[in-house]
Amino acid sequence: MFGDKRRGPRGTAPQVDTLIGSGVVLRGDIAFRGCLYIEGRVHGAITAEDEDAVLTIATHGLVEGEVRAPTVVVSGQLRGDVHADTRVEMTPSARVEGNVHYRVVEMAAGATLSGRLIHTAAVAALTGPSGQAEGAAAPVEAEAETAAG
Question: Which InterPro entries does this one have (predicted)?
Fold first, then answer.
């Protein structure tokens, strides 16, 4: 619970700036900076406002909504899409229902994902400056890349 905001070596955790305790139910969107640690329930979108932000969903935590943060660590339940610019970690107790957009992903044995893993660098390489796929072959290549990992 104490240390650098960025994930350290395995077994160490980032500093917690904001804690949503196990008895808390939040309904609404959240914007945060630093490290947000969720042990309770959040019904709404969660968005990080800085490039070093870390979102951690604890073993008994639940998030229902889209998540956007550089680093996302899931040990509990997440029902919604994840967009992580840096890293997504799913521990053995993670239960994710939604698509995971990632640059680097770590999925431990036992974690479950009901959705797609979408590598953001592969998608960016297949889309033009407008964000739209270039040419007719792009969607097929994107599907093949996603399936490969």
Answer: BacA/B
